[in-house]
Amino acid sequence: MNKRLLFLISCVACLAGWVVYGSLFRPSWFERTFDEHLARFPLAASMASRDPALREIFLSRTEAAFDGGGWVAANKALQISLATEVEVYADDEHINAITRAESVLLHDLENKPLACRTFLFAGGMADDLLPAQPDDTLVWYAHRAAMKNGFERRMNGNSWTQPDDPETIDVMRNLSQGPIAALTGAELTASTKYLDGDPELACGAAIKRSRNLMAMHDGDAARARRILMANTARIDIVNVISKICRELNDGWSCS
């Protein structure tokens, strides 16, 4: 084997090595530009700068959503992460304030079943909630206050144990039975079917659960609400966004 051939083989091997290195170890475009994009959400960016572990959670979840559904999915993944990783640490007062604000908004959306389901699964899409203002704004303020309170409590060492499946199921079952209003069989079916359920029935079920939640003792209500918030981590946001955007047929809202 002559020297020229050996040199060519060495070059090819080096090139292949760089390709493998680049694909396995170099940061992706999303990761390299993550902080720049996160800066559009100042509160989340501030949290990420103070808590590197939280930043990694935001990065991994939003990048996965972005790869599957673009920026709308990534932004919703960030919203879910803020709820499941930050808001759940908020005190009972802030948690219950979210429930009260969302209950009012759900009543506003009762006659707009698609917008109601959009709110339930994706937190609203662009201008879908405009008819419900200012209650939509009140919900945002309640969440924002809970984020701030929850983050400080998290940083101060307050603990939060993620619920297991039986605990989550118990909460969902209890909120479906009362104490104010029990869900009908049709409403339970619609809730169980997730995105494929009847949106009007799903919205009615959510309103009843909200009323039942507010009828509970403050401490119990806050605990149940935290479990429901933690359960939103199971949402397949890419699938949700895809279905909602098809139903809304509104390119501006889903761009």
Short summary:
With 255 residues, the chain is an all-alpha fold. The chain contains 13 helices and no strands.
Can you characterise this structure?
- The chain has 13 helices and no strands.
- By secondary structure, it is an all-alpha fold.
- It has one domain.
- Helix 4 (42-50) crosses helix 5 (52-85) and helix 7 crosses helix 11 (199-214).
- The longest helix is centred in the N-terminal third of the chain and has 34 residues, at 52-85.
- The protein is globular.
- The N and C termini lie far apart (58 Å).
- Residues 19-23 and 125-132 have low confidence and may be disordered.
How many helices?
13
Number of domains: 1
The total strand number stands at 0
Question: Could you report the average pLDDT, rounded to the nearest whole number?
Answer: 84
Terminal CA distance: 58 Å
Approximate helicity band:
over 70%
Radius of gyration: 22 Å
Largest sheet: none
Contiguous uncertain segments of 5+ residues: 19-23, 125-132
